[in-house]
Specification:
By secondary structure, this protein is an alpha+beta fold. About 20% of the residues lie in helices and about 30% in strands.
Length: about 260
């Protein structure tokens, strides 16, 4: 039996999603908690791995089990055993051909910037603070040049293990809400550090150091050295995943 879950987590206490030597990771905590409820070892698969410090409002995972539990029993049992920085939002049985990663049609993130002259005290671990004024309209205009299917090699890290850099960017919006600038991104998939590198590049436009058209030049260069800095991870949140309707997977934190 294949089980899918919606997961919310605070990325700050963890060394990213994927299991590694440094602990704790989100994957290791989830596998330990789910295995405890299932009474057998469980391996999970996620829609998209996140880096150290990156949070998620609606990550999706799946695992296989022979254990008979109701969705409520899974949810309550796993949450009782989980690290306080992670919570299961919903649980449902899915078709055997469902895969949290490979069945996904798109993934969405947001990047939040506090743009004011003094540092934040509240929610500081979930924001990137930029004290110099930013032109969010110029940033938004520049971001539109990245929409569509392109080779995003200029925006991926040197550690990226993807076999190619071709991705389809579906949304790239930059809006201001008072002192906050929020960047919304959706794509069929993202490369390692792709969003943080795009944001770092857009910041050069927002500061007026580069013109809007420069972002297109960076994209076409296919050269990571031509792009801006890698923006800090704290402002980045994984916000949702979309799947084919046949799987009936929710794309937000609400369920039924």
């Amino acid at each position: 039996m294949r089980i899918a879950c919606g997961i919310e987590y605070d990325g700050n206490p963890f060394f990213g999603f994927q299991m590694q030597k440094q602990e704790p990771t989100i994957q290791s905590c989830l596998e330990q908690a789910i295995s405890q409820v299932a009474n057998h070892p469980v391996k999970i698969f996620c829609a998209g791995r996140t880096d150290t410090g990156v949070s998620a409002r609606q990550q999706v995972i799946h695992f296989d089990t022979d254990a008979e539990r109701t969705p409520r029993q899974w949810t309550l049992g796993i949450n009782t055993a989980l690290h306080e920085g992670i919570v299961v939002l919903w649980v449902q049985v899915v078709a055997d051909d469902f895969h949290a990663r490979f069945s996904a049609l798109s993934r969405s993130y947001e990047y939040r910037i506090l743009n004011r002259s003094v540092r934040p005290a509240i929610n500081r671990q979930y924001l990137t603070w930029i004290l110099r004024p930013l032109d969010h309209d110029a940033m938004h205009e520049a971001a539109q040049t990245l929409l569509g299917t392109h080779d995003f090699n200029a925006f991926r890290s040197s550690q990226c293990q993807a076999p190619h850099a071709k991705r389809t960017l579906l949304q790239a919006d930059v809006v201001r809400d008072g002192e906050e600038i929020i960047c919304h991104f959706s794509a069929n998939a993202f490369l390692h550090h792709m969003i943080r590198n795009i944001v770092g590049t857009l910041l050069k436009v927002g500061h007026g150091n580069k013109p809007v058209c420069w972002v297109t030049e960076v994209l076409r260069s296919l050269d990571r050295k031509q792009a801006g800095m890698t923006a800090p991870p704290q402002g980045l949140t994984f916000t949702g995943v979309t799947y084919p309707d046949q799987y009936q997977i929710p794309n937000d934190a609400t369920k039924q």
